[in-house]
From TrEMBL:
Segments forming domain YbaK/aminoacyl-tRNA synthetase-associated: 43-157
Protein name, per record: YbaK/EbsC family protein
Pfam families attached to this UniProt entry: tRNA_edit (PF04073)
Superkingdom assignment: Bacteria
Matching Gene3D superfamilies: YbaK/aminoacyl-tRNA synthetase-associated domain (3.90.960.10)
Species the sequence originates in: Actinacidiphila polyblastidii
Record InterPro entries: YbaK/aa-tRNA-synt-asso_dom_sf (IPR036754), YbaK/aa-tRNA-synth-assoc-dom (IPR007214)
Length: 176
């Protein structure tokens, strides 16, 4: 099997990679998703594209966990944007969640709430009650590399599939 983007040696259907994925991700992957084995020391975007293909800079998406607060209540959400952009936390996210304050969730909270490793968080397999905010540019990209829930390994997923994940809401202007 070959990956539709990038230069990876170990490529297989994500549905056959359960032993390489955290349990919530393994339970949520679909037939359209591909798992590629990667070096965990090269999981961050700059090192990743240098190792596995410079074209991946334009076809990678980052997933970050945000916490929105209003009246003592905290709402968590995942935000998925192209790696060449950043999440508009204080504008688009705050308005969509209807909160007074939004910020990136603390690392220990993001890891604890998702069951995933920091630096590998993915929108696949997140808690069912979380909204997944997806930038329209992600949905419009044929294939994207995203986290696998671990720093080792990535998922390659068609953009439209990411926009159709349970709880996904496609937003214009999420990535700026």
């Amino acid at each position: 099997m070959r990956a539709p983007i990038g230069h990876f040696e170990d490529v297989r259907p994500a549905t056959e990679s359960g032993d390489l994925l955290p349990p919530p991700v393994a339970a949520a992957v679909t037939a359209e998703m591909i798992h590629v084995d990667t070096d965990p020391a090269k999981a961050d975007t700059a090192a990743f594209v240098e190792t596995y293909g410079r074209e991946l800079l334009e076809t990678s998406a980052n997933c970050v966990v945000v916490a929105g607060k209003r009246g003592g209540e905290t709402t968590y959400a995942a935000c998925l944007v192209l790696s060449t952009t950043r999440v508009d936390v204080n504008g688009t996210v705050r308005r969509h969640l209807g909160v007074r304050k939004a910020s990136f969730a603390a690392m220990d909270t993001a890891v604890g709430e998702t069951g995933m490793e920091y630096g590998g968080i993915t929108p696949v397999g997140l808690p069912a009650h979380w909204p997944i905010l997806v930038d329209r540019a992600v949905v419009d990209t044929p294939y994207l590399v995203i986290g696998s829930g671990r720093r080792r390994g990535k998922l390659i997923v068609p953009g439209p599939v990411l926009g159709a994940l349970p709880g996904a809401v496609v937003l214009d202007g999420l990535g700026v």
